[in-house]
Amino acid sequence: MTRSREAGEGGGGSEKRLAWVLALALAAFLALAGWWVFGELGRARTLREELIENYDARTSINQTFSLLQDAETGQRGYVITGREEFLAPYRTAVRSLPDGFRRMDALLADEPVQTERLGRLESLANQKLAEMDRVIALRSAQGPAAAEAAVISGRGKALMDQIRAVVADMRQAEQATIDAAVAQDSARAERTEHIVALLFLGFLIGSGASIFLVRRYSHVRQTLVTASRTEAGRQRAVFEFALDGIVTLDVNGLIESLNPAAERMFGWSADDIRHAHFARLIDGADEHAPLHQTLGVEPAELDAGVRREVAGRRKDGSTFPMDVGLVITRLEDGDRIVAFARDISKQREVERMKDEFVSTVSHELRTPLTSIAGSLGLIMGGAAGPLPEKAGRLIGIAQSNCQRLVRLINDVLDMEKLDSGKLPFHFAEVELGEVARRAVEGVRGYADQLGVELALEEQALPWVRGDVDRLVQVATNLISNAAKYTPRGEAVRVVVRREGASARLSVADRGPGVPEAFRERIFSRFAQADASDARGKSGTGLGLYIAREIAQRHGGRLWFESPETGGAVFHLDVPAVDAAKRKEPRDRVLLVEDEPAASALLSSILEQDGLKVEPAMSLAEARELLKEPDRFGALVLDLRLPDGDGMDLIRELRRRPDVSMPIVIVSGEIKPGSEREVRALEVVDWMEKPVDPDRLIELVRSVVGRAAAGAKTILHVDDDRDIRELVATALAGYGEVVSVEGMVQAQAFLAQRKPDLVVLDLELRDGSGIDLMKQLVDAQGRPIPVVVFSAQDASDQIGPSVAAVLVKSRASLSGLVGAVKELVDHGQAERDE
After folding, report:
1. In angstroms, rounded to a whole number, what is the distance separating the alpha carbons of residues 813 and 807?
2. Residue 74: pLDDT above 70?
3. Residues paired with 493 in a beta bridge
4. 437-471 pLDDT, tens per residue?
5. What is the CATH number of the domain that holds 506?
6. Of 10, 277, 765, 778, which is most buried with the most CB atoms under 10 A?
């Protein structure tokens, strides 16, 4: 029994000793593992410090190279401009480079090869600074030519190329050091993971938690890696397969990358154009200008993102219209600018084709309809003799439906031009009562057919600033609509009055009013109410839409009232012009001359002939006065002014649709090659100083009073035979009508005779009527009055000699006759005086 107990105690002692051995072994294992892990952490800290030093070294290398680049850029700017502020980067480099080299020397002290390269870099940098200093001194002492010759010699470039090579070697060496250290650390990290795994496996109690944590970590890591790869792939796909060009830039506008679409668009590969300025991809842009100036925006606009339409430039020098948008993105390694470019050549081509189609439709439909409507009107008026009653009714039906088709075509064309912003407006001061009278007379025949009376009441004579033809178009639409819905025997009441700061034209009918369900969309396109009570004469549904758009272009509004008692009242409100602010007579001349003596002399010459002269001493003063262009009948302009070139003012005026005043240049110099541009800008004449007083008076007087001197011979130019016969019949009582079909015949006639008045179509088979306008001058060199009668709407290119613009199918034949009669009567009145 004792032996058994001893044996048991011995066995227990052995187990106890084994436990202690195991405990000691475990403790030794843990201590060894801890020592090993501590060592690994120390080596990791050492690696981190090495990486920090390496990063500092690379940063110093990059900063040194950047300083040299900035210094070179500043030197070039100074050589080109001579402005001291461009030398700021050079002076900064001179001050900062010694400290940079001392810092790199300390960082690279343990690397003999890098130390040797650093010494070479410092030597080259000093040589480069010395070369730049020599060029700057040459610029200061001998001027830009000597400095540019020094730059072109290539010594500075050769030094910079050597510097780039040394910097590239140093960067590569530092990168190799990083790669080796990272690889070593990765291998060490892999070993650490295995030992740590074995350590956790030794602990049975913590094994489950350890495995869970490892698996959890691996799962999360794999999820993040997968998400990262997916997102990177998605972004790469967007970048590479996007149809629009994508260009990434640094904050200075230098190109960092192009996607394949941008490479195809511009013809450059990403490697070929990397580090070039974005301005290289924009036609006419300055590569030395800041990015915001290249795009014509303020710096703050780039932060919010901008979009511009510019002319793109390909590698081969060809250009194309381009829509470009830029936005700044914030990244960990600094800000970047992303540019999205789209070639809009096809879009512009489609727009051009649409414009050509509209122009073709306008000409090919309006011209024959004018012939038909005019012929029917002449027949109805008895030009072909009395008609049988039945024939008269049939012709009346044809005329009515022809007019309906004319309104349809005009409405559709006007809508298209309104949407594209190409509907021309020619603003001038006009009496709203005159607009109402013209509209009433134009609709009276239609109203008589419906048995409706038109009553015009002018409670005031307010003046407005607007396009008289467009305002008449609005009034005509309102009155004809009112007549259509007014019962036979009733009257449409048209009232013109002053309403506060506005001039109001109101049209009231006695019809059923505007249905409640139709009121919200009455001014929409193609909007039509139930036309069962409108005698079956429904329109296109575009008239009120166009009328409202025209009212808004005049700064006014079109609205209506439909009282419960019946009927509807439409109001056109347009800002009124105060009588005290009415424009001066057209014999007022704006004289822009900065020399007081010359200004006084020219004013005296003009005022002696009865002209009123308002002087301006600068472009700024002239621009302020020309905010009201209708107060001046002509502009007499010197080109050399203290705040700019007078040609800039002429270009601005010719781009403004509300300005058509004649211009006479009086200047002491004529720049070579400027004559062609002067003719293109429709300048009446260019007089060199000293001025011939008689010639100046003749020029100015001829352009401020362009009325016809009595139209005896009327030249009609139109390529449509039916229109020529129609116009010749209508104008037979106002003079000799000579009809020709094109430019060649018109020029042949002008070579033999000078007509007193010209009726001109703008679209001719053998040329443009606008080109013929330049040849329409009488024997004294004065413009011959012109009445444009064309299917093409008035263009900004027409000259100041145009007395009236009538659009075929929009203007009636009686309107053409009235315009010619007014010119004839005005000319006769002048002769009588």
Report:
1. 10
2. yes
3. 455, 508
4. 988 988 888 888 889 999 999 887 788 888 888 89
5. 3.30.565.10
6. 277
Question: Between vectors from CA 91 to CA 89 and to CA 93, what angle results, nearest 5°?
Answer: 70
pLDDT in tens, 30-42: 666 667 666 666 6
Count how many Cα atoms sit within 13 Å of the Cα of residue 83 in the half-sphere of its side chain: 8
From the number of C-beta atoms within 10 Å of its C-beta (0-12, 13-18, 19+), residue 470 rates as: buried
**Encoding tokens for residue 526?**
């193609």
Q: Total structural domains in the chain? A: 6
Residues 6 or more apart whose CB falls under 8 angstroms from that of 322 comprise 282, 309, 310, 311, 312, 341, 342, 343, 344
Other C-beta atoms lying within 10 Å of the C-beta of residue 583 = 16
Residue 265, domain CATH: 3.30.450.20
Q: What is residue 618's DSSP assignment?
A: S
Own/partner contacts of 86-92, CB < 8 Å, gap of 24 or more, are: 87/136, 90/132, 90/136, 92/67
716: β partners: 739, 759
pLDDT tens, residue by residue, 371-389 = 777 777 778 767 677 888 7
In 3-state terms the chain splits into helix, strand, coil percentages (rounded to 5) of 60, 20, 25
Q: What's the one-letter identity of residue 113?
A: V
- Which residues, in sequence order, are CB contacts of 312 under 8 Å at separation 6+? 265, 266, 281, 282, 283, 319, 320, 321, 322, 324, 341, 343
Distance in angstroms between the alpha carbons of the first and the last residue of the chain: 163
Q: Which residues of 144-183 are buried (b: 16+ CB within 10 A; e: fewer)?
A: eeebbebbeeeebeebbebbeebbeebeebbeebeeebee
> Do residues 553 and 596 share a domain?
no
pLDDT band at 244 (very low <50, low <70, confident <90, very high): confident
- Model pLDDT for residues 359-369, shown as the tens digit of each residue: 666 666 667 77
Mean pLDDT across the stretch 195-214?
A: 60
Range of the domain at 359: 349-420
Angle (nearest 5°) at CA 194 between 191 and 195:
90
Judge whether residue 757 has pLDDT over 80.
yes
Please compute the mean of the pLDDT values over residues 800-823 and round it to a whole number. Answer: 66
Closest CA to 463 of 514, 416, 501, 413: 501
Is residue 673's pLDDT more than 70?
no
Directed axis angle between helix 88-107 and helix 2-81, to 10°?
150
Decide if pLDDT at 674 tops 60.
no
Domain boundary among 316, 343, 370: 343
In the predicted structure, residue 522 carries a pLDDT above the cut 50: yes
pLDDT (tens digit per residue) in 580-621: 555 544 568 889 988 887 888 788 778 776 678 889 999 999
The answer to whether residues 565 and 481 touch, using CB atoms and an 8 Å cutoff, is no
Q: Which of 554, 560, 551, 484 minimizes the C-alpha distance to 521?
A: 560
432 and 564 within one domain = yes
Spatial contact of 320 and 312, defined as CB atoms under 8 Å apart? yes
Identify the three-state secondary structure at position 526.
coil
Question: Would strands 786-790 and 802-807 be described as parallel, antiparallel, or unpaired?
Answer: parallel
DSSP for 318-383, please give it. -EEEEEEEEEEEEETTEEEEEEEEEE-HHHHHHHHHHHHHHHHHHHHHHHHHHHHHHHHHHHHTTT
Mean of per-residue pLDDT scores for the chain = 76
Cβ(258)–Cβ(273) under 8 Å? yes
What is 631-661 written as a DSSP string? G-SEEEE-SEETTEEHHHHHHHHHH-TT---
Does 400 share its domain with 468?
Answer: no
Token pair for residue 502?
A: 């506005």
The rounded radius of gyration (Å) of the Cα atoms in the chain is 43
